[in-house]
Amino acid sequence: MRLLLIHSDHIDYQAQKKTPVAEEGAVLEDAFDEALVAFCAVESIDEEDIEDVIGQAVAEITKTAEQLKTERVLVYPYAHLSADLSKPETAKKALQEIETGLKTIGLTVKRAPFGWYKAFTLSCKGHPLSELSRTIVPGGSEEAKPAKKEVTH
Amino acid sequence: MRLLLIHSDHIDYQAQKKTPVAEEGAVLEDAFDEALVAFCAVESIDEEDIEDVIGQAVAEITKTAEQLKTERVLVYPYAHLSADLSKPETAKKALQEIETGLKTIGLTVKRAPFGWYKAFTLSCKGHPLSELSRTIVPGGSEEAKPAKKEVTH
Ligand SMILES: [Mg+2]
Question: Which of A77, A119, A150 is facing B79, going by the closest CB pair?
């Protein structure tokens, strides 16, 4: 799983058009201020142990939210973070379970719908911890560390 | 090279803090309306033939700008698109050459500085072509195609 974690002043999104794998019953339009936006791409390798990957993702997002002193998280599907995606059904279920896991910990969580083209506006705060990326692999908690040289761009 | 191409109503950025590889002499604060934002991560494999990768990137960005009927491009360094980055000096030079290449074609181009923490606000239009990702590899023009299953999230 690839994660892009952005500490934002504001995010809003509006679902505009379904793809063939669009999730039904999700919140099609929402907004959040002072939140951690967790852009997520579920990858094919994650299917080897999806529950483990989900657990690592929940832990990583929770740790980052604590560092940023926010209790507000938006889980946002973002296929463009990976060129090797999981099956859509796996991703949809994983994102729902990440939402549930974060709520169980006590965070205030929203989740953007999977499989829709969405308009969005995002403000990134710009401090050194306001943009982080992580690669999570099944069974590989030591891989859930900052990407090599990640602060150089 | 990983590219994330976003058709935006508006983007603005403000450089806030240098990293150790911060570019000097770049535009530290700017804004653009109705533009294609080209988020770019230069990868280690690109160093095998960086000029080829630069040429492919310029062609890909130009083609997308034409499809979107915009002549305005913001080149934006985005390390978080890859976990295997090139040397910073390679990336800095490549991004400058992409800017020059796009200007030579006649596009109106701005470029955000490399190696700075930046605040930004981005609005994505949300139509089906408004978010595209590409993976470019040296000598592999057939690889510069949509990522597998890219429309499914
Ligand atoms: Mg609009």
Answer: A150
CB contact under 8 A, B79 and A127: no
Q: Who contacts B74 (Cβ-Cβ below 8 Å, separation ≥6)?
A: B11, B30, B32, B35, B36, B37, B38, B109, B110, B111, B112
- B37, B129 in Cβ contact below 8 A? no
Shortest distance, CA A72 to any CA of chain B (angstroms): 19
- The answer to whether the Cβ–Cβ distance between B133 and A83 falls below 8 Å is yes
Tens of pLDDT, residues A60-82: 999 999 999 999 999 999 999 99
Residue type present at position B140: G
Question: What is the tens place of the pLDDT at every residue in A4-46?
Answer: 999 999 999 999 999 999 999 999 999 999 999 999 999 999 9
Instruction: Work out the minimum CA distance from A107 to partner chain B, whole angstroms.
Output: 24
Q: Residue A137 in 3-state DSSP? A: coil
Query: Cα–Cα distances in Å, from B11 out to A85, A120, A124, B133, B136?
Result: 28, 12, 11, 18, 25
ipTM rounded to 2 decimals: 0.90
Q: What is the DSSP letter of B146?
A: B
Q: Model confidence at B141, in pLDDT bands (50, 70, 90)?
A: low
Q: How far is CA B135 from CA A40, A79, B17, B43, in A?
A: 18, 13, 29, 10
CA B44 from centroid of its chain's CA atoms = 16
> B42 to chain A: nearest residue by CA?
A153
Partner residue facing B83 (CB), from A88, A128, A147 = A147
Spell out which residues of chain A touch residue B82, defining contact as CB-CB under 8 Å: 147
Nearest residue on chain B to A23, alpha-carbon basis: B153
pLDDT band at B143 (very low <50, low <70, confident <90, very high): very low
